Amino acid sequence: MIRSMLAMLLLLGALAHAAEGAFILDYKMNDIDGNEVELSRYKGKVLLVVNVASKCGLTPQYAQLVEIHKTYAERGFQILGFPANNFMGQEPGSNEDIKTFCVKEYDVAFDMFAKISVKGKNIAPLYAELTSATDNGDHGGAIPWNFTKFLINREGRVVARFGPRTKPDSDEVIAAIERELAR
Question: Which of 46, 47, 50, 121 is the most exposed place for a label (fewest CB within 10 A)?
Fold first, then answer.
């Protein structure tokens, strides 16, 4: 009887977890230097997860990402940049090339990760999870282009998604970040 009740509680917990949307803190990813990073280290922080590229018309969004990171980092906000070469070869370089570009051109100080695939048959499991999120409306669906942004709450769940052309410092994004930081 106790075992069946425990099994039922575990099942209910798993169903609640699935119903709440993407839970990215369970993943491990390599940073831009090749070191494995457990994303659980970000528990308690509000995150903006962005697929980035160095040779894209939207690459100037790096400057805005740098500024909002500076503005909100002390309040528990972190940006996670994931370079991807899924769109017209706009991120062709090695991780070292990408890191050099980001530091030299934009003075990027937020966390950058190793280049991954954000769509298609080789999609990284993290992005498979992010694009399947459906909590608080429809955050799911394939990544349409570079600089798609996912806002993640302090528990590691997707709470908002912003398209590539939505600038990181737009009123909409800033309001969502501030709302999550206030919780």
Answer: 121
> What is the set of active-site residues?
56
b/e burial code for range 166-177 (CB count within 10 A of at least 16 → b): ebbeeeebeebb
The two tokens of residue 118 are 């954000």
* Dihedral (Cα; 103, 98, 145, 66), 10-degree rounding: -10
Tokens describing residue 16: 């609640």
pLDDT value of residue 18:
41
Cα gap 5→7, rounded to integer Å: 5
**CA 54 to CA 85: how far, in whole Å?**
9
Where are the chain's structural domains? 22-182
Are 61 and 147 in contact by the 8 Å Cβ rule? The answer is yes
The predicted structure's pLDDT at residue 132: 87
Q: What is the separation, in whole angstroms, between the first and last Cα of the chain?
A: 39
Positions of the chain with pLDDT lower than 70, given as ranges: 1-22, 133-139
Q: How many CB atoms lie within 10 A of CB 183?
A: 9
The CATH code of domain 22-182 reads 3.40.30.10
